[in-house]
Amino acid sequence: MAKSDKKPAAKAPAKTPAKTAVKAVASIDIGISGPDRAAIAKGLNGLLADTFTLYLTTHNFHWNVTGPMFNTLHVMFMDQYTELWNAVDPIAERIRALGVCASGSFGDFRKLSTLPDAPSEPPKAKEMIRTLVAGHEAVARTARSLFPLVDKASDEPTADLLTQRLDVHEKAAWMLRSLLEE
User: How far is CA 38 from the centre of its chain?
Assistant: First the structure.
């Protein structure tokens, strides 16, 4: 048979729509009920969104700060955005340890965050400071709001994470507020 005389390949049988795939996942038995894990993870996803939003705002201000306090604020904002960047991974990993997917899109963060987006037009330096004070205070409130559920579930690793985040945000807000005093 010449090459041109080959029979066409038989068509593969039409596939029927797949049934919803159910993956066999090992059950999670860490001493926290499924509903409690889901509720804690939901709260942590909000904390993740707040932290990322504040990171982005702080980095924006680092790039765009001007005026007589430029050097002080440029360095301070870099320290703060670096700390915030390093915070998102432990928060996301705790969510995963609880058996839930961590949010990771701008769309999700926009819906979950209690903070407003960074302003399109960079404000003056003192307004940047006020914005970041409000942001750190808001993230502290988000973290603090999770304690009743975390305590009820005896979720010590999350409580430890929240305590660390509260310390960082309360100190950052205090240091920023001190720059506004005359």
Answer: 16
